[in-house]
Amino acid sequence: MTDFSDDDLKLDPNFATRFERDDERPPCQLYLISPPRIGADFAEQLKQALEGGPVAAFQLRLKDVDEEEIARAAGPLQRLCAEREVAFIVNDSMELAKRLGADGVHLGQGDGDPRAARALLGPSAQIGVTCHDSRHLAMEAGEAGADYVAFGAFYPTTTKETAHRPDPSILSWWTALFELPCVAIGGITAHNAAPLVAAGADFLAVSGAVWGHESGPCAGVGAFAGVLGW
Ligand SMILES: Cc1ncc(COP(=O)(O)OP(=O)(O)O)c(N)n1
Ligand SMILES: Cc1nc(C(=O)O)sc1CCOP(=O)(O)O
Ligand SMILES: [Mg+2]
Which annotated residues bind Mg(2+) (predicted)? Predict the structure, then answer.
């Protein structure tokens, strides 16, 4: 692919200010991300979260946890998701996604090639790719067969150290040009999500605002009702 810089790709200066959601696209949906570490009661917390409102996908994102432990934790969570038709996505490892029979995998820039994931997981797997604040990375991911591209971190977050801070206009730019869904991630709460929805995010990926909600994860999901129009 031709190597454009992201500045080359900002062809229309109006993209910087055009925050009008394309009515042809499906409504923005919620994509839950697990906390980086979970306790024995997490299946109950996930159950409560899924009672709070419609959730399209759940990503098991455990950090500094041994793969066998992740596999043991996954079973009950995967069953809860299957019962509610919530896509169960594994973070980081296409091999673990294969082993668990997950619905898909989320790959960061250092987590492997989406083409290899497709070959391993098959045509129906949902493969997502982190694209930070880069139009170029997003187009590369699309060409490599990703099912969604993820931009972030839109807001400060304590869930993870982040080095990129895209402007919401990247979502408008993406949705004006491509049908492939885009995910917004990073520090998203029910209170700051509106500009991302207006800019065209197909999914809001959220962790801390749900698991850390003062009234629990059911209320944490429910808080998004207004901004997501449930
Ligand atoms: C939906 C979604 N978007 C981005 C990420 C971040 O992935 P990555 O860059 O690999 O960082 P880690 O999550 O592995 O710390 C994600 N997990 N999910
Ligand atoms: C996992 C992750 N990836 C990010 C990125 O920018 O790629 S930000 C992030 C953390 C998401 O959790 P919270 O909703 O608590 O901020
Ligand atoms: Mg990763």
Answer: 92, 111
